[in-house]
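Margin note from the TA: students keep mixing up input and output lines. Inputs are the sequences; the output is the structure of the whole complex. Example:
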Amino acid sequence: EVQLVQSGAEVKKPGESLKISCKGSGYSFTSYWIGWVRQMPGKGLEWMGIIYPGDSDTRYSPSFQGQVTISADKSISTAYLQWSSLKASDTAMYYCARAPYDILKFDPWGQGTLVTVSS
Amino acid sequence: AIRITQSPSSLSASTGDRVTITCRASQGISSYLAWYQQKPGKAPKLLIYAASTLQSGVPSRFSGSGSGTDFTLTISCLQSEDFATYYCQQYYSYPPEVTFGPGTKVDIK
């Protein structure tokens, strides 16, 4: 079974750093994109960026370029999303999702990681 | 960047109704469009890709159509489990760029 399992919920203070993870299983991790999607409370889906673990090709949405870093460790089939200095406005649910190389349709999705940033 | 609009933003319907949701792209995207269903507290679920291809395991009452800039998602006979929010997503650009629509919430009349 193809599965993406994300790390658990986080509560952080403004200015702190954070790295959340997304572990793939049941497929060739290096042959599919992993995308990250933000969903702020009560709001819609926002695409943040994608990474191709096979060669680490990474693309960011202009809205998130410079705000987050996407990476992957193919040896452990895990992708990451990280912040160097969190803001209260980063409070959201973050999803990872898999997409084939040539068709950016996202399936399956991880269960989501809730990040709460509050002083 | 390609912008995506959806209409309506919400609708109320009854079980058994036929429901249509529209998605419009700011420029032609061929058939590079997907539809997702999201229920409260759950991750989105892929329903349709390439504008009209049903994802494996998705009921046949869901269908998609369109190409270029205008697309529709149709639920032919609404079931209780279909009350949810629906998002369209374009994936036309290269280098890879993705845009989601703002969503359409379908609730019970």
